[in-house]
Structures are given as structure tokens and as C-alpha cells.
Amino acid sequence: MNHSKKIRYILLLLVLVFTLQLKANHLVGGTMSYECLGNNIYKISLTIYRDCSSGTAFDTQAPIAIYDVNNTLLSNQLANFPGSSNVPIIINNPCLIAPQNVCVEKAEYEAIVNLPPSPGGYTVVYQRCCRNSNAVNINNPGAMGSTYKVHIPEQNLAVCNSSPTFNNAPPTVMCEGYRFSYDLSATDIDGDSLVYLFADPINGGSTANPAPSPPASPPYSNIPWAAGFSTNNQINSNPQFTIDPSTGFLIGTPLNQGFYTFSIKVQEYRNGVFLDEIYRDFILVITNCQSNTIADFPVQTNYCDGLALNFNNTSTNSTYFYWDFGDLSTLSDTSNLSLPSYTYADTGVYNVMLVANPGYFCADTIFRQFEIYPKILPSFNSITDTCLNNNEYHIKGLGNYDGNGVLTWSYSGQTTSQNFTPDSIQVNFLDTGNQVITFTITDNGCVETYKDSVYIYPNPVADILSQSIYCDGLAYDFTNLSTHATSFFWDFGVNSIQSDTSLLYSPLYLYPDTGIFEVTLVASQMNLCYDTINKFFNVKEDLNVKFLPDTLCFINNLFTLDVIGNQNSLATYFWDLGSFANISTSTNPQVQITFQDTGFYPISLTVDNYGCTFTYVDTLGVYPNPIPLFSIDTNLGCQPLLINFYDSSYLYSSASYLWNFGDNSSSTLQNPNHIYSSPGIFDVSITVITDSFCVDTVTLKLNNIITVNPKPIANFSVNTTEIYFMNHVIALTDLSNELYQEFNMGDGTLFLDEHVFYEYNDPGYYDVFQIVTNQFQCSDTSIKTIWIKPGLLVFVPNAFTPNNDGLNDVFSPKVSGIIDYNLNIFNRWGELIFESNNMLNGWDGSYQNIACQEEVYTWVLKIKTVDYLTPTYRGHISLIR
User: Fold this and answer.
1) Is 612 exposed, middle or buried (0-12, 13-18, 19+ CB in 10 A)?
2) Would you call 570 exposed, middle or buried from its count of C-beta atoms within 10 A (0-12, 13-18, 19+)?
3) What does the CA dihedral 505, 510, 515, 518 come to, rounded to 10 degrees?
4) Which domain holds residue 453?
5) Is residue 293 part of a domain?
6) Buried b (16+ CB within 10 A) or exposed e, 860-881
7) How does DSSP assign 688-753, residue by residue?
8) Domain boundary pick from 789, 805, 820
9) Is 520 exposed, middle or buried (0-12, 13-18, 19+ CB in 10 A)?
């Protein structure tokens, strides 16, 4: 088909109206699944599909009912509307186009529920009416609703089981007369085996009650198929649709246009045992699909790309491609890529062919002619950076062009230039900075450009800060004032040694001796251009003197100051000692001074020598002598007595400490605490040792400041510590002989007597305390634990009536005084029909959820007493209904 005819055919298809539209009353499909989150918590997932143009919206709150095995409603969860999204329309055929006015959207509701283990498991259900009235394969579709359900099996089949979930959205559209295949598989996170089958759609809701809340309880009825249709033949097709039971892959060819209700189920097995199944039903639209495949790729616009071309592809409605690049020199000039590249062996004119969807009935072909020329590839010889002074470049242009090629040059800055030939120039730049040279060749209708740049640096200027200070010594710190320079070379003018050079910016050089030296600095700009300067420097010995600062205590302070430095015997001195010293000035190299008060005093020393003057200033410190002080939190108490000591000494520096607590104990902490274990009266002293400023050792001792009184000793006897509750008597006797004593029986009862006889009101463990106090009000406590053991009581009835009237419905022995319990019930054949390890959990007269008949049953009760005895009791119980 040529392009003009094909375009007219496509335009004709575009004006056709797709007569089969989704006119569902509400739903077009759905499914339900669940996931166990642990601790009996389950997430219920409900997915509902509806026609985008439906007049009925999704449920604002979807009612999801939960029923037990007896079809008793346990809860009705209202899942909030989560929002909706569109379902993609998949055709699975590159030649076919899905109709534009088919639109399905989905909403995925969730509910989190707590479902403890229950015999028979749970049924979870949602219902909605009504279905698409246009469905041709079920009877009375407009009056039929939908039921989406799952069954959660009981725990003895699968603990914390999760159902399968579908991997893909359901198919929506099939093309009449074309083979259709689709993946309907599911995933089970528990790794269970899955089997895929066709299923019958399930009815639910009604026109009178379209949105039941709660949904109805099981059982549910299937929707009858229309004549000619069945569970395994749900669509008119040839070959008939099949679903692979192992993979869930659907294959078939639909024959007749229309709407079809389609339903499948996925069964879940674990170790060969059936657990559960999930359902999915949905509406399939069988329609007449059209094709409008057009092969196309752009015409050639650039003729100077060389032998290697990248082809663009502007074909429409095509998935597969076949290219033939028209190179007759080889058979390898083809490609199946959408956007291929090909390198021709030589220049020339070639016919390029593109086939869209090759091998399909909708295949389309197009040819275009391409002219291949070599790349022009303009360039010129490399150029290097330099400085502004005397820059000049001779440039030769290169490239692939014929005699008709036009060559042009351009520059980014101000220049003086001259063309010797079209491809050769001479250029001088007048500005610093990055300068771009552009060489352009125009040939065969193509324009190609080559650019390169050169950096023109400013000219360097070398400069050194002149000498203004003398007597700095043999080490001279040079200051570099150069501009527009990136590297430097110094020669310090000491011709007698080879190590008198440096490459640093501003170096420090140590001269071997005093003298006058000619210093040379060469400044370089990127090692491309240079500038040089020479200056003379007079190096003299530096004058450096000082005295040692010091700090002393105020009492008997006397400072001796000596001049230290490199002065010689010709030096003269002047001391400025201040008005607070015993002398204010001196011209001697050594002075001795004292101060009349504490404080900090600046001292100035000026020395003249070598023709230079040097002044040094430092400070002397006079500190108060340390004063030891301390405090305590208490000075009187009972043995053992804990006392916290707090240093409050008056100090000007850090110090070390030595405490003596008067009981042959000591500490070096600043703020110690100490426990006096023995009674008595004690002296305490603190010694403070300062280590700087005012260095001194001072002691403060306080006599008889701490009194420790003796502690009494509690002691009593008890006639027994273990006794049964029946007719028990506890006898206590005080053995302490202290001034005051008290018994606390552990149940809130107090006695002040020395002899006590007592009976407890209840069994249990009791801590009995004795508290004694002496004449110093010091006390002590003694404790003994008494166990009042409960007596063993067993009562077992001989009949019960489990008829759910609220009276005597459960058989449960009454036992006290035990720590372990086991009850077994046997029928007359000796079969165990009930067992309990909790006396609150009695027998309701059933076995495996089936009521037992009236007769006499045998019971065996095994217990463990608080004394760890293990008696066993047996008897009979009559079940009466």
C-alpha cells in the first residue's frame, strides 16, 4: 500500500465510531486477597475495577464482612476509598491498536484486622450490584451482582498464611479474529503451590440492595451461564481459550464482538493439602481492532557527517523494524534496531530502505536516498600560551575540502592579523586573557568549524620591599612585591656558598655572617616570560635581650633580675621598675626589688649595643599566701557515719591536698567523703600545697569536730519460717536487749512487745522486720521471711449440662494450693477427647467442634502442689443435655 492510500485509510478509520462501549452499571471486575502481618494481624486487600464513564462512583467506604465457620458475623470493616488509577489496555499484537474510548480504572481498598486462631478459619467477603447489562455470556446480567471473597484457613492447616496475589492487571480488550495471549499468574509469598482454573462468577447484592452492609454470609450462588457458554467456554473462540494450570498463561482466538464476563480462580496447596483459593472476574470487550503502521525516517539534511551515519526513526504504530542501508559492497548492511548506526565503506549515493513490522500483515516500507561525503574535519597547528609582549603566531589551516571550498578566520579579541594564503595567517593579540581562534571551511553545502584557544598572560614585574629595619640578625625575611608572576628565583648574593638561592614567594634566609649583599629576584609568568630586579641589603647582628619573669608569695617577696641576651661588654642598660617597687630605675645589669602589696607589675629593660636599641617588657606577679579552709555537711551521727568534706581554701593557683580524718585514714581529693566505721570523737586537718604563682604548704587542723555514736544490733528469734495456714501460730522473741524495739509483721501489723504470738489472715510470703533503737537514737533492722503455705483443696462435680443456658455449661474441677494443673477427658473407648492445662479452661461437652452425646466420661486430674507433690485424681462425669 503506498503512503497516500494508507493515510487516506487511516483517516477513514479515525472517523469510525467504536460502537461497543463499556456501559456497566457499576463494576467491571474485582478480586480479594489477604496477607498475614504476624501476631494474628491480617491485611485484607480488595481491588475493584469500573468503567471510567460509569455514573456510579467507587464506594466511599467499602463494607468488608468477616464470618466464622458457623457463618456468624464477627465484624464489618469499612475500608476508606484510597483513590483510583487507570488500568493499561494491552493488545499483545504490534499490528493492532486498542480502541481509544475503552477506559477502566481501579481502586485498591485495604483493611487491617485482628483474627485470633479459630476452628474452621474465617470467610472475608465484599458484595456489590450490579453487573454490565451488555454481557452476552450470562443470563440476566443487569440484575446480577458480584461477590468477592477469600477464606482464611484455620491455624492447624497453615500458621499465619497469606493468599496468592495476581501479578498483572486483568486484560480488558481482545481483538476479534486475532490470537490473544496473556499472563494471569499469581505469586504466593509463602512459596505454596498454585493451580489455575476457569471459574464461575459469583452473584452478590441485588437491585433492591445494591451495596449490602454488611455483605451477606455464606453460602453464595454462582451466576448461570447463557446458552452455549460454560465454565471452560466463557468466550466464543476458535481455538477455544485455555489456561495453563501450572503457569496461569491464557491463550485463545476470540470470534465475536461483544461484552463477556470472564472468571478464573487460583487454588493454593501446601504439601499437597488444599488451603484456599482466590477469585477474579472481569468484563472483556471483544472488538474490531484497526492497524495504521507507517514506516518513516527523516530525509537527509546534513551531507558532511562522513561515512558513519546515525539514522532516526519516525515510524508510527510499529514495534519491529528491518533496515537495508543500500551498500552494495557488502551483505552486512542491514539492522533490526529502531535507531541504528551504519558506517559506509566509501562515499557515494545510496538507497536506504526501512520496513516497519516486517513479516506481519501490517508491514510498511519506505525508501530514501542518502549522499555520503567525507567529513571536512577542519583544524590548524597547535598554538601555545605566552605573555603579552611580542606575542606572534603563524597558523596553518588543515582539512578535507575540494577546490571550491571557502576558508575563513575569526578571533575573539583585538588583533593585528595578516593572511599570507587562504589557509595561512599571522596574528598578534593586543589583549590579555583567553583568546579564541576560529577556522571555518564551507564545502559541498556544509559548514564545519574548528576552534582553539590561547591564553595571553600579562607581563611579569619583579620587585622586592626595600630594607628599613636593621639589627634583625642574620635571618632576613624578604617581602615579595612582584606582580603578574607565578614562580620566582632568588639569589641572596652570598657568592661563597652554593645554597644561597630559593624558589619561595617570600623566603627567610639565614646569612652566614654580617655584611652588605646584592639580592637578585627573577619573576616568571608561567615559565613563559621573565623580569629581574637587584637590591642591596645590610645584614647586622640582631640584638635580643630579656630577663626571666617570676611570681612569688607576698610574704618576704624578693625578685632578682639578670639581663640575658647576646649583648657584649659595651652594652648600656636602663631598667624602668615602676613606682610600686623599692627602687624605680636602675642602670645595672642585675637588680633586686621588692613590692609592698600584691599585684602584677610591668618591668621594662632597654639595652643599647651594636648601634641599635632593644627594649624588652615583662611582668612580675606578687600573690597572696594560701589560706586553708574547709566545711562539712554534718559533725554528729550514728556509726557508720558518712561525712562529705568541702574545700573552701583561699588560693590563686591550682593545688594538691592531704586530708587527715583522725581515724588513721587520709585522702588526696579536693572534696572527699569519708565513712567513720567506729564510734568516737575525731580531729580533722587539711594541708594545701600550691604548685605555681605563690608556692607554699599550709595546714589547718580542727580538734574534736566529729562525734560518731555507736550503732545497736537488731536480733530476734522465730519459732518457724514455713508452716501451713490451718491453725498456725508465729512466735517472735526480741534478743537485742536494746532500749526500744518494734516488730513489723509484713502485712501492716506492728508490735512493741518483746514477745509476740501472731496468726496471719491469708497464706503467702511475709517479710518480718525488727527495728531497734539505743539511747543515742541510733537504729538497726533485722529481717526474716516466713512462708504461710496454703492447704490443698480439690472439688470435682459429677455431672454437667452443656445446653448453652448459662448454667452448669462447662465441666471444670475447682482446685486451690497448686502450681501446676492437667485435666484429661476420655470417652468410653479410652479416646482422649479433651485436655487442658488451665483450670479456667473447662470442657464444653464437644469434640472437634461437634457436641458429644449424653453418657458417662472418665476424667483424670494431675496436679503439683506448692510443696511440689504430684497427686493424681480420677473419676467420672455424666454429660446431660
Assistant:
1) middle
2) exposed
3) -20
4) 379-457
5) no
6) ebebebeeeeeeeeeeebebee
7) EEE-SSS--EEEEEEEEEEEEE------EEES-SEEESTT--EEEEE-S--SEEEEE-SSS-EE-S
8) 789
9) middle
3-state secondary structure of 764: strand
638 and 569 belong to one structural domain: no
pLDDT tens digits, 583-633: 999 999 999 999 989 999 999 999 988 667 889 999 999 999 899 999 999
Distance CA 617, CA 549 (A): 10
pLDDT of residue 99: 67
One domain for residues 270 and 383: no
Q: Which of 593, 623, 653 is the last residue of a domain?
A: 623
**What integer is the mean pLDDT of 207-226?**
94
Residue 729 placed within a domain: yes
* CA gyration radius, the chain: 54
CATH of the domain at 392: 2.60.40.10
Residues 351 and 441 in one domain: no
Residue 303 lies in a domain: no
> At CB < 8 A and 24+ separation, what contacts does 296-302 make?
296/354, 296/366, 297/352, 297/354, 297/366, 297/368, 299/368, 300/368, 300/369, 300/370, 300/371, 302/446
Instruction: Please report the DSSP string for 552-617 in residue order.
Output: EESTT--EEEE-EES--TT-EEEEE--TTBS-SEE-SSEEEE-BSSSEEEEEEEEEEETTEEEEEE
266 three-state secondary structure: strand
785, 767 Cβ separation under 8 angstroms: yes
- Residue 513 predicted with pLDDT over 50: yes
What is the pLDDT, as a whole number, of residue 7?
A: 36
Supply the CATH number for residue 193's domain.
2.60.40.60
3-state secondary structure 737-748: CCCEEEEECCCC
* pTM beyond cutoff 0.70: no
**CA neighbor of 326 nearest in space, from 372, 358, 293, 294:** 372
**What is the reported pLDDT for 445?**
75
Confidence of residue 17 (pLDDT cuts 50, 70, 90): very low
The number of distinct structural domains making up the chain is: 8
